[in-house]
Design a protein that fits this description.
With 485 residues, this protein is an alpha/beta fold. Helices cover 27% and strands 21% of the residues. The termini are far apart. Residues 465-485 have low confidence and may be disordered.
């Protein structure tokens, strides 16, 4: 437990990318920093542990990203995904400051993966962590410790002690802790079943939390009750289709189910509800997550035949298998007559593409709902099924902030020395929708902004922080495969 006589300049609440970035930049600026994380040491890193990439703009190819991704395209991608709902000032800061993230991460000891080092999906929009999010978290934590950050695991924060519009202390599991300023980077409330039930009712019982169980929203709910301004929609969740056998918490990215276009998706009665061929891009994960939330018991099954299963992306759990559709239905707990009727109607409706229109692909005719692409017959045994449920990634809800990430109040004022970063304030940028790698970039960019602002708010003369120029990669490990061309 930290000494009660030592009052840090900056108190950081959280343990993910935003908290670690804030702590590192505040400590590098000369401040004394204490970081409190609700999770035990083994779970340091929040949802960042399950990440694999981050989004960054760049004007030319880099060793980590092929081709260019100009700021204008980054900006347009976010605006399109959010329906234009992103705060324009914060979005501009995100787009511009994302340019420095690769070099900043390398300077902290985080390794990035070159496309030539192993199998990676092509992405000019995102760079990938070598070793994944766990390796990145460990490197950032080591850097924070090397800079003298006092890290306190297993210590949740519940409230702030305010004097007017200044924070004087934070109420925690280990008592009240004073500080010159604080950075709140402890995420939203989506891991709290009671909070989910308030906004989703009985359906919330069928949700799986893909990330850390320690994002329970104590500070978020306290701030809102005291008069902090909210951002986003508390009922807005970014849901992804995951295997229904996933753990209740912390299953991460590997629990996703991705083969919907190659089979049919049915409910417990064996009925299809949506066009499985309509979504072939990465958006299918989130679209199916939202759809499954409306299924009875929030459960559906992806059913495939043998060719479909062989073509489907790899999954963490093995599928349920049976020699025929009726046996598979019994194994899964699906109504056998309903599933048999669905397959009879589906296979009868399948139409092969005409030679002159091969690009249109296989589709169905006179079937409701249709299957508009990849509608090959599902006939070859053995048959297989993956049970699916909605997996919660984050909530499109949090605290409103100003351009300096100070917590905004409903009366138009701000907390002078309390800043929010990461998913606690991400709804200012993503009140709906999502694009790959955005959460980590928001966390890193605004964690750094908040950490530096907290140093100033604490009255600590800040040492200048060098910003590496994009394209400066001297800290990278040499690549035996040679440069990317």
């Amino acid at each position: 437990m930290p000494s009660p006589t030592r009052i840090p300049d900056v108190l950081v609440i959280g343990g993910g990318a935003a908290a670690l970035a804030a702590a590192i930049d505040a400590a590098a600026a000369g401040a004394s920093v204490r970081l409190l994380d609700a999770a035990p040491p083994a779970l340091l890193g929040g949802n960042t542990r399950h990440s694999r990439n981050f989004r960054c703009s760049h004007d030319a190819p880099t060793p980590w990203t092929p081709d260019a991704y100009p700021p204008a395209q980054f900006r347009a991608d976010v605006l399109r995904a959010t329906g234009g709902g992103a705060d324009p000032v914060l979005l501009e800061a995100l787009v511009q400051q994302s340019r420095a993230l690769p070099d900043w991460l390398l300077a902290q000891g985080v390794a990035l993966q070159r496309p030539a080092q192993g199998p990676l999906p092509y992405s000019r929009r995102t760079a990938f962590f070598l070793g994944g999010g766990m390796a990145a978290v460990r490197a950032l934590a080591d850097r924070a410790l090397a800079l003298g950050v006092d890290m306190v695991p297993g210590c949740a924060a519940h409230a702030l002690v305010l004097r007017g519009r200044r924070m004087t202390a934070v109420v925690t599991d280990q008592g009240s802790m004073s500080a010159g300023a604080c950075v709140l980077a402890c995420g939203g409330a989506h891991a709290d079943p009671a909070w989910l039930a308030r906004h989703w009712g009985a359906a919330a019982r069928g949700f799986v939390n893909r990330g850390t169980p320690h994002v329970r929203g104590e500070l978020l709910q306290w701030l809102l009750a005291q008069g902090a301004a909210a951002a986003g929609d508390p009922a807005g969740l970014y849901l992804v289709a995951v295997d229904a056998r996933s753990p209740a918490h912390d299953g991460g990215i590997v629990t996703r189910i991705r083969g919907m276009p190659l089979g049919v998706v049915v409910d417990r009665q064996g009925r299809r509800r949506h066009d499985e061929g309509a979504d072939t891009a990465s958006t299918r994960y989130s679209r199916w997550g939202q759809r499954l939330a409306a299924y009875p018991e929030q459960t559906g099954w992806l059913v495939l035949d043998d060719p479909g299963l062989r073509a489907a992306p790899a999954a963490l759990y093995p599928p349920l298998r049976a020699p025929d559709i009726a046996s598979l239905a019994v194994l899964c707990g699906i109504d056998p007559a309903g599933l048999e009727a669905t397959f009879t109607a589906y296979n009868a409706a399948v139409r092969a593409p005409a030679q002159s229109d091969a690009a249109a692909g296989w589709r169905t005719a006179c079937l409701d709902p249709p299957k508009s692409a990849y509608a090959r017959p599902i006939l070859e045994p053995p048959f297989a099924a993956y049970p699916m449920r909605p997996g919660v990634t984050f909530a499109h809800h949090g605290i409103a902030v100003d351009a300096c990430t100070r917590v905004r109040w409903t009366d138009g004022t701000v907390l002078e020395n309390a800043f929010a970063a990461g998913m606690l304030m991400a709804a200012n940028l993503i009140p709906q929708g999502y694009v790959s790698g955005l959460a980590v970039s928001i966390s890193l960019v605004f964690g750094r902004i908040a950490g530096r602002a907290a140093v100033q708010a604490a009255g600590r003369p800040a040492a200048p922080l060098p910003e590496p120029d994009q394209g400066h990669f001297e800290r990278a490990e040499p690549d035996p495969a040679g440069p990317v061309t």
